[in-house]
Amino acid sequence: GENVGLHLPTLSVQEGDNSIINCAYSNSASDYFIWYKQESGKGPQFIIDIRSNMDKRQGQRVTVLLNKTVKHLSLQIAATQPGDSAVYFCAENMGSGGSYIPTFGRGTSLIVHP
Amino acid sequence: EPEVTQTPSHQVTQMGQEVILRCVPISNHLYFYWYRQILGQKVEFLVSFYNNEISEKSEIFDDQFSVERPDGSNFTLKIRSTKLEDSAMYFCASRDRDISGNTIYFGEGSWLTVV
């Protein structure tokens, strides 16, 4: 049968540049969003999260922006480094009744050139 | 930093065989999860587990799958009769009680190849 694989969107940047990774989510009722980083052969690693009552949150070198009107999330990485090269996933909480079930989006591959 | 550990890191099994994937969550965590990731695709939720029972499961988690916490430390995923399409990386994850200020921690994964 036909093998259909998902080709990840790819963002290539130079070391030192700022990176912006975008994500569209599906559920307008989602109340909690998370960005994960996944390096090759490893499990997803938490980067930063944001609740739906906020539109911006900053961490160390990272900023997450949330636009609920258009159901859009972005991750900004300042002064991108080669070690930032990975696949980045946004996840929204799809759990019901107060439960917490991160549901992952498609992922974006970030390639940082030295 | 505490971590979730998974064994085996890689297993090759014949179609139709039973497989058990093992996980040791972080010791004071209360919520446990299994996710899978087919090669090149996104990470998919399978099941969540709390207070010794399944709290939520996805459509992928059919009767061929089961989870168990046989003692105070291990959390296992069993696939009763493996199919070719079960080939994937399986991630165990755990988290503490309250999601505010806490995160889900993922293990390194168990790569299952069904032949």
Describe this structure in words.
The complex is a heterodimer of chains A (114) and B (115). By secondary structure, chain A is an all-beta fold. Chain A is 0% helix and 50% strand. Chain A contains no helices and ten strands. In chain A, the strands form two sheets. In chain A, strands 1, 3, 4, 8, 9 and 10 form a six-stranded mixed sheet that branches. Chain A has a four-stranded antiparallel sheet with strand order 2-7-6-5, with no helix packed on it. The N and C termini of chain A lie far apart (40 Å). Residues 1-5 of chain A have low confidence and may be disordered. Chain B has 115 residues and is mainly beta. Chain B contains no helices and eleven strands. The N and C termini of chain B lie far apart (36 Å).
List keywords for this structure.
heterodimer, A: about 110 residues, four-stranded antiparallel beta sheet, globular, B: about 120 residues, mainly beta, seven-stranded mixed beta sheet, 11 strands, about 0% helix
